[in-house]
Design goal:
This is TMM79 protein. The chain crosses the membrane at residues 29-53, 74-97, 103-124, 131-152. With 161 residues, the protein is an all-alpha fold. The chain has a single domain (22-160), classed as Four Helix Bundle (Hemerythrin (Met), subunit A) (Up-down Bundle). It has 6 helices and no strands. It is elongated.
Length: 161
């Protein structure tokens, strides 16, 4: 489903990436796009704090309620996946040709939407969260494989440069 969503958005959404000739400009563009990917994480922190205040789980070492535990686990996993996403996206931006830089905001949007889908499905039940997690993890895995391909096959002479 992820490749179909990315391809459909790439073809049908009417925007193009700006001209980014240098690596530093590409990294700044990636950093700006990654700021939007923090939205689900920040929203999770806010909801987690509100749920902790509204529940009787104000004791720091006490037993957490299920609602508080769901939000806490979501925020923790989202921070870890965001770090992996951001570093893969930064490396990906250096290897992509100019005409494919449109993928950077599209992958950012997919990350944010898939984290929100994971959060909603995790709140429904733990058995439903696989769809949202796979929409987050599989594009991240594809980015990692493309980055390794770019480092070791496309430009092996610049691996340590």
């Amino acid at each position: 489903l992820c490749p179909c969503l990315i391809y459909g958005a790439y073809v049908f959404l009417p925007f193009d990436a700006p001209l980014l000739p240098t690596i530093s400009a590409r990294l700044v563009y990636t950093l700006r796009c990654a700021a939007f990917a923090t939205f689900p994480v920040v929203l999770g922190v806010i909801v987690s704090g509100i749920s902790r205040l509204c529940s009787s789980a104000l004791e720091p070492f006490g037993e957490l309620h299920r609602e508080v535990e769901i939000h806490r686990t979501y925020v923790s996993q989202s921070v870890h996946l965001f770090i992996l996403y951001f570093f893969n996206m930064a490396v990906l931006a250096t290897y992509l040709p100019q005409d494919l830089l449109k993928l950077i905001p599209l992958l950012t949007g997919l990350f944010a939407i898939s984290r929100l889908i994971f959060w909603m499905s995790y709140a429904i039940g733990r058995s439903f969260r696989a769809f949202g997690f796979s929409m987050t993890f599989l594009p991240l895995l594809a980015m990692l494989l493309w980055n390794l391909y770019g480092m070791f096959v496309l430009e092996p002479e610049n691996l340590l440069a």
